[in-house]
Amino acid sequence: MIVILKKNAEEQKVDVLRQWLINQEVDIHESIGEYQTIWGLVGDTSKIDTDLIEGLDIVEGVRRVSEPYKQANRKFHPDDTVIDLGNGIKIGGGSFQIMAGPCSVESREQIIEIAKAVKKSGANILRGGAFKPRTSPYAFQGMRAEGLELLMEAKKETGMPIVTEIMDASHIDLFENVDIIQVGARNMQNFELLKELGKLDKPIFLKRGLSGTLQELLMSAEYIMAGGNTKVILCERGIRTFETATRNTLDLSAVPLLKEKTHLPVIIDPSHASGIARLVKPMSYAAAACGADGLMIEVHNNPAKALCDGPQALTPEQFDEVCRGVEKIRNAIKED
Ligand code: PEP
Ligand code: MN
Fold this sequence. Notes:
four-stranded antiparallel beta sheet; 14 strands; 33% helix; binds manganese (II) ion; single chain; binds phosphoenolpyruvate; alpha/beta
């Protein structure tokens, strides 16, 4: 349920209503906008008499929210959520960011060379997997804790914030200096992990599961938000369909649909979505054109020798071209 308060509502009466609602055992999530204040009520609101609240002179209106996701719902929070990473790097609400780097951290030289290259092209956030979710137990599993240390070195060297994937809640302490924690597609519905991440005060990059619906993605975001961590970034990275020509099928309609349903930023990952390096440029352009808040792109200094996901990795030169094109598209669709 949401309660819309009138602009300039009398403070004392607002406090009385707040206390009354708390006594009804609901949590109030306040969203103060430019024109109105909205209270999103979470809990059992079924016994609350909406007519009673609507009749108060401080209340503009009351609406029941039928969707199961509440805090992620745009009805609860009409303004876009903006994730602020400091140093002027923001995601959402019109701020577009490109996250780039290798699928996996492979060595000090590799991650630092790639970090410097992608930064020069305009990426503000460095990606790199340390803990890798691989289909085969015999495949390279990532450099794990050592990989995280190398990411920290790259951060120190370039000043770029880091996004990297967590696979197990028992590793949370290792991620203390990571700027954005990624939840990979395979863990989108690892609810125990999501609950633990909900206790942190750190942005969470939540990827859509291979067979996750948009509602399921939003419910997973809700798990994190229900714990108190509202800094969630959503990522569409392709879903599994009958099509085998691409690694996954990029669901671009997810961008405008998610933007209607939620206030959270939406990022497109064209690398995992297509699995084919030459498709990354056109898909990045399409993502920028349909309103995504950013991109996550895999870049490798030697894709042919990459230990993971080489066929979808761009060279730094190809990445530079994508960045320049994306900028042109963004300028072309800018509203006056
Ligand atoms: C990744 O970003 O390297 C990754 C494993 O992605 P996904 O979870 O989308 O497969
Ligand atoms: Mn990858």
